[in-house]
Every structure is written in structure tokens, then in C-alpha cells.
Amino acid sequence: MGTLSNETSMLSEALITSHASTIKFAELAIKSLLILNGGAAIAVLSFAGAQLKSGSLAIEAYSSGMQTFGFGAGLAVLTAGTSYLAQHFFSHMWDRTGTFLQCLSVAIWLGGLTAFGMGVNFSTVAVRTGAQKCEQSQPAKTSNAGASAMPRLLAENRTSQHNS
Q: Considering only Cβ atoms within 10 Å of each terminal Cβ, which end of the chain, N or C, has fewer?
């Protein structure tokens, strides 16, 4: 009978350790999502502010990216809240409600990760659009040599587009 008790005790300790590890990984995932989206929103805001000061581009071009990153950060906070509620219900033996909230937390977290990806896309489009507008607003290079300078200008244009 002593061996059964020892095996049960070892199984219990393993489950507790596994549960603690799961919670630590969930905390890390939620914090990472908040840092990703929040940091990206701050970076885009800083970049847009610098562009606005230099007169290169209006800040509206970056608003979709900033809004999406902000939404993703909000989803990270919501994930933390629903995860807390899930653990609360699990601790009071309301396993169905806890499982539902746990699944909801995962879905919200995935939504936050999707928001990060969309924010990256919106921000990339804004940067590309800004670069194209800057290129269009610069006066075209002209040469006194006429047609013989055209191949050189085309090569310069290709090189500058390749580097950006």
C-alpha cells in the first residue's frame, strides 16, 4: 500500500510542476505580445513624428499601423484578464467555465498576434508610400548631354530603388 501512496504523491507533484510551468509560459506569451504590440506602436509613432517634423509625410499614413498595434496591445491585456478568470474558476472547481475562458484566452491571444502581423503590414505600406512620395517630389535630374545621359540616369534610378 505504501508504493501506491508514493506513486500518487509523485504523480501529484508532477502535475503541480507541470501546471506551474504552463502558467509561467502563458505569462511569458502574454507579456511578449504586449511588448511586441506596444513597442511597435511606440516605434511607429516615433518614426511618424520624425517624418512629420521633416515635412516628408503626413502622420495619417501611419495611423492604421498605430491603431492596429494599439488594438493588439489591448488584446494582450484582455488575454491576461481572461486568463486570470480562467484560473479563478479552475481553483473553485468550475472546470467547464475555466476551460471555456482558457480557450477564449488563447483565441484572444491569437487575435493579438494577428494584429501585430497586420500592423507590420500597414506600417510597411506607409513607409513604402512615403518613400515613393519623397522620390516623386524631388526634382528630376537633367543633363546637358541630352539623350546620352539617359542610360546613366536609368541605372542610377534602378540602383536607388534596389537599395531602398
A: N
Burial class (CB in 10 A: 0-12, 13-18, 19+), 144: exposed
CA–CA dist 134, 132 (Å, integer): 5
Other CB atoms within a 10 A radius of the CB of residue 59 amount to 13
Local structure of residue 143 (DSSP, 8 states): -
| Gap between the Cα atoms of 130 and 98, Å rounded | 47
- Enumerate residues 6+ apart whose C-beta is below 8 A from 64: 122, 126
pLDDT in tens, 68-100: 999 999 999 999 999 999 999 998 999 999 999
Instruction: Give the three-state DSSP class for 54.
Output: helix
pLDDT of 149 over the 60 cut:
no
| Mean of all residue pLDDT scores within the chain | 82
Long-range contacts formed by 135-139: CB under 8 A, 24+ apart: 135/160
Measured in degrees and rounded to the nearest 5, phi and psi for residue 143 equal -135, 145
Q: What is the mean pLDDT of residues 131-140?
A: 65
